[in-house]
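## tool: complex_structure
## caller: assistant
## args:
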Amino acid sequence: MLELRNINAGYDKRQVLNDVSIKIQPANLTVIMGPNGAGKSTLLKVMFGLLKPDSGEILLDDRPLRPEPSKLVHQGIFMIPQGKRVFRNMTVLENMELAGHFWKDRSVFKSRLEEVLEHFPDLKPRLEDLAGNLSGGQQQMVAIARGLLNRPRLMLLDEPSIGLSPKLMTDTFNKIKTIRDTLGTGFVIVEHNLKTLLPLTDDAYILDQGRVVYNGPAQSQTLEKMTASIFETKETLS
Amino acid sequence: MEYLINLAILFCIYGMLALSLNLVVGMTGLLSLAQAAFYGIGAYACAIGMTSLGLGFFTTVLLGILVNGVLAFIVGKILSRFQGDYYAIVSAGLSIIVFSVLLNWKDLTNGPLGIFGISKPAVFGYQLSSNLAYLLLCLAAVVLSYFFYNLIDKSSFGRTLKAIREDEQLTRSLGYNTKHFKSIIFVISAVMSGVVGAMFASYIAFIDPSTFQLKEGIFLFTIIIVGGLSSARGSIAGALILISLPEILRFIGLPYETAAQLQQIIYGGLLVLMMVLKPQGLFGKYKM
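## result:
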């Protein structure tokens, strides 16, 4: 579905990604992991067009693509940037409405909102509340729900567990899996908290110093060994 | 009475300028210091159009809209790449450039000597020669500007601007071309300022470049911070306070020898006090 070939990218003169190639399969849960500074968030930014690569090729459905957020959203790809979940000074409903700019017809938005809220019943009574007053977990749910309004094919999530308690983190990952199973939405998740997430995911990539050092199934002994050595602790997975 | 009418007209002019600036600074979060430039261009388009080209007031307003619209579109495209402090510096640069052009392009602007003899407009054949009649025109324009501001504020366009203010990257991630939105609001604001500039020139009958310096942009900035960012009411209240406060201080019986200095100190002190007590301004939704 979404493929990156031989991507080199960075900021000014500092190269962060070195010859990175990855392939995201449709409707899969893909986790991208690696130590701090490995280039995980940079990779997500390149995928979504928030950072232009210096070289390499990006393909969507086997066709070359110059990613631009405004174009990708129309093609069913959404991103939730790291630590930026909601517009805190707006209500939950206004947050939702911001994602509904595709439809001139308000009734389409309303029906989509109803549809999405079925997956997030806790948000229903909070629609008129300021998003900034919600808990971290609820804000994450608003962000995911907002993305789902457009029935995306793929959502890119950058460290969705940041600031969440272990329970909320587990709830969030379970919700993501449920959405994938019921709606067929694929997810690419950059994440540190692998213990909770890995058992739920299909594919995994490990980045180290800007290079892909693992590419394969999320449940494998090789992966377990590699993560343990890269993160220098086995607690991450055990 | 004439004194009060004059004050009221100035209040209207600064109220409208504050509304136009608040669209960019308050609603969208762009630290623009370019407002004095567009205000000046509108004023000079009116002055040159009426005195040299013999155009009617409303034709010169259209001329100002055209010039400001084109310039703001080009500058807005450049500015839309910047944020925060950088935006302020680049927009201040524009203000300085426009001031220099007004000062030095003597063939067109008459340089530091300014332009005299700008007449008042005629509305439906009726010449607004009295200040009271002009005040009515200004009040109508303020009301119109106020509703226009609120129209944008409550629209989906306004909601997107507020989203950009809060988090531009998050707004982009929802598929918005944020540069496009930033450019559009910059043009709208510039055009509004230009119209006000024309009204000012026509009222005051004489303009020179000194009125349109960068410090005028900073004064407008002060108005919206005191009144409150992203608030139409705040823009009006800020203009009312900053226009009337120096006048009130003239009548509090300060010793003649030091009155001017004391007025400045009290004026500045009151502004500091207000910001300490109400950092988001009187009706503001955000702090700077």
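## assistant note: Helices of chain A lie at 40-48, 69-74, 92-98, 106-117, 136-148, 166-183, 194-197, 221-231. The longest strand of chain A covers residues 14-24. Handing back to user.
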